[in-house]
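Final report, Chapter 2: Outcomes

The project's central promise was a pipeline that accepts a single protein chain and returns its three-dimensional structure in a standardized token representation, suitable for archiving and comparison. That pipeline is now operational. To close this chapter, we reproduce one record exactly as it appears in the project archive, with the input sequence first and the structure output second.
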Amino acid sequence: MVSAAISAFGTAFPPPLDQRAAWDEFFAEHYAGSRIAARLWTNSGVRTRHAAVDPRSESLALASTGARMRRFVDEAIPLGKSAVDASLAAAGLTPADVDAFTVVSCTGYATPGIDILLARDLGMPESVQRLNVGHMGCYAALPALATVADAAVARGQVGVMLCVELTSLHLQPPTDDLEQVVAHSLFSDGAAAIVVTPDAPGLELVDFVACTDAATAEEMRWDVTDLGFRMTLSPQVPVVLEANAARVTSGLLARQGLTIADVDHWAVHPGGPKIITSIAKALDLDEDAVTVSRDVLRDHGNCSSATILVVLDELVRQRTPTRGQHIVAMAFGPGLTLYMALLRVR
């Protein structure tokens, strides 16, 4: 039976922005010196983020959504190209080898989409099949990955998936809404690409599962406004995820005759430090199991959909999983949605 595997990763980031410097040189004044805001900022778990638009030199807080979308195209094209180039080089492939190209983003839109523009600039075939996944939020990489895997299995396609997110474009006007402070303290910019090939060495994509707790849909939102996209991020999010994580994980694993104890490595989307802690508690994981997730949050912030791919890439680099080991990747987003993938090293 044909199976699909992630055979290579590629990442790209805008210039780094020190978290403390961002507060001292912009956000402290932006939030009128609020001590609560300062404490939330300090406790974000982020040390370095990345910003295509550095608010210290250029604030988009009052820019129109149209202006932000035009900027998205300008910034996303070179960033996405760099990530895709890196993934193809790591896989030993060229753009001409790509059958299907999937682009994921919840931070910008354009028509023609950046999928078309990037395929053109990269030199992919005119016959390349494209899919553009938008506004699903931080978990979007996993349902998109499932679609790419299906194409590899059903039609033998070589696929490239790119997640490119530019949250710095969505700086909001000053507010005393603490959920906005939390969002601005966590979210960052970045791009991550993967190559998925049929029957290749790498991380075999074994199974996927989703759980949407619609009763808690208002706890996490990403609303399109006249001044960009505005995040709602309730402090109840870690509580909801903790309540569902063990049941959903066990269901995913049981379909393969596995249990939580059989999982060798965990790739947990670092939506924030409390989310990582809640997942570890729900699954009874020790701190070492989520160290890579905390490292990614510390060094890159939360890059929305791109983040889980960055975590997987770092996990492979740091832990060098061996043949036959199992990895569970999970990410969370609006809905409130929990999405998971089971991978096996081959």
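Archive annotation: The mean pLDDT is 96.
This record, like all others produced under the grant, will remain available to the consortium after the project formally closes.
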